[in-house]
Recover the amino acids of this structure.
């Protein structure tokens, strides 16, 4: 069986080799996880959010392929210093894919997982405060659903 290497951009390769903001954070304001048991990709984001609802610091841990690590890394760079509302409205998996110089279609899920985890973290932050702003939809976003479905599947598989 031969394996053809995926056509990753130079930026994906660089971020895979030298990820930004990687590692566990002590005492984060909020954390969120997303994973894909089918391919083994897992991401955990740790966020420090200040009283003005600005993401002061964000780090990640990632287990998975080059695209998973690169998209998690670029997301931290894209949203650090942003207000939560702006992050929610502006962060999309397509923008993440563009920021890393494109992704092979079989790796789009990596951007979806990263965005889903961030949106889950923002939703969780407000749930912890007991206040959901009107700009967060009651129903989960596409990215959140994907992250949640994959996490639930991973949990079911781990019980077998």
């Amino acid at each position: 069986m031969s394996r053809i290497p995926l056509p990753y951009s130079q930026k994906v390769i660089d971020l895979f080799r030298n990820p930004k903001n990687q590692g566990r954070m002590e005492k984060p304001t909020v954390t969120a996880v997303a994973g894909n048991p089918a391919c083994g990709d897992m991401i955990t984001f740790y966020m420090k959010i200040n009283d003005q609802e600005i993401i002061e610091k964000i780090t990640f841990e990632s287990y998975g392929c080059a695209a998973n690590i690169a998209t998690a890394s670029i997301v931290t760079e894209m949203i650090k210093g942003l207000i939560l509302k702006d992050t929610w409205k502006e962060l999309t998996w397509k923008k993440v894919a563009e920021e890393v110089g494109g992704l092979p279609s079989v790796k789009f899920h990596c951007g979806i997982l990263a965005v889903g985890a961030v949106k889950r973290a923002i939703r969780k932050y407000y749930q912890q405060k007991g206040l959901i702003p009107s700009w967060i939809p009651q129903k989960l976003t596409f990215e959140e659903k994907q992250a949640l479905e994959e996490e639930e599947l991973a949990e079911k598989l781990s019980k077998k």
